[in-house]
Amino acid sequence: MGLDQALEISVSGIEAERRTMELISSNIANISTTRTVYGGPYRRKIAVLQEKPLSFQQALSQAEAKVNAASGGVEVADVVEDMTPFQKVYKPGHPDADEQGFVSMPNVNLSDEMVDMVYVSKLYEANINAYNSTKKMVTDTLTIQ
Question: Buried-most residue among 76, 117, 118, 144 (CB within 10 A)?
Answer without folding.
Answer: 76
